[in-house]
């Protein structure tokens, strides 16, 4: 199963960094505007059972064509250390994203840990995972930069 991991040290307490992610506007602040992602429905914050429905381009280089919906459900919530969301419906065969917050003295180690499968089986994972990881590196560099901006 392909895995993606991205970590950063944030100069703020674990409570502050987790609290930033709980803000109602956090998803919007953490999403690069050029990706063309729209939130269609958001219910329940980060708690287990909460859901977010987004609409996004299937092909990032054609943001106005071939749009799809992605429904994510939060399945675990342990403030201020972890929350997890999983795809219910969307572009992946399987998607699980853990947002991990670890106190390192007065700082926070923020880690996004994602496991995924692409539609089409092992061969699709083998061929497509490098492209997915490339796109995720860009997305999470932005997200961690924004987290630093708002929390430090």
Structural features, described:
The chain is an alpha+beta fold. The chain has a single domain, classed as Alpha-D-Glucose-1,6-Bisphosphate, Chain A, domain 4 (2-Layer Sandwich). The protein is 29% helix and 41% strand. Strands 1-7-6-5-4-3-2 form a 7-stranded antiparallel sheet. Strand 5 (82-89) and strand 6 form a beta hairpin. It is globular, with a radius of gyration of 15 Å.
Tell me the quaternary state: single chain
**Contiguous runs where pLDDT drops below 50 for at least 5 residues:** none
Q: Share of helix among residues?
A: 25-40%
Total E-strand runs = 7
Q: Distance between termini?
A: 35 Å
Q: What is the annotated CATH architecture?
A: 2-Layer Sandwich
> How many DSSP helices?
3
Q: How big is the Rg? A: 15 Å
Residue-averaged pLDDT, rounded? 94
Q: Can you write the helix and strand succession as a string?
A: EHHEEEEEEH
Features:
152 residues, alpha+beta, Alpha-D-Glucose-1,6-Bisphosphate, Chain A, domain 4, seven-stranded antiparallel β-sheet, 3 helices, 41% strand
Lay out the secondary structure.
Layout: E1 3-10, H1 14-22, H2 26-29, E2 38-43, E3 51-57, E4 67-78, E5 82-89, E6 94-104, E7 107-117, H3 121-151
Quick summary:
This protein is an alpha+beta fold and 152 residues long.
């Amino acid at each position: 199963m392909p895995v993606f991991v991205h970590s950063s040290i944030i100069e703020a307490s674990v409570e502050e960094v987790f609290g930033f992610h709980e803000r109602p506007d956090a998803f919007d602040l953490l999403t690069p505007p050029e990706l063309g992602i729209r939130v269609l429905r958001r219910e329940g914050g980060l708690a287990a059972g909460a859901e977010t429905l987004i609409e996004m381009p299937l092909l990032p280089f054609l943001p106005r064509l071939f749009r799809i919906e992605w429904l994510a459900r939060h399945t675990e919530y342990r403030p201020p250390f972890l929350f997890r969301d999983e795809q219910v419906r969307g572009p992946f065969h399987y998607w699980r994203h853990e947002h991990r917050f670890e106190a390192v003295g007065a700082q926070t180690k923020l880690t996004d840990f994602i496991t995924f499968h692409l539609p089409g089986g092992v061969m699709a994972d083998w061929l497509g995972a490098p492209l997915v990881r490339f796109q995720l590196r860009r997305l999470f560099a932005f997200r961690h930069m924004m987290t630093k901006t708002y929390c430090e």
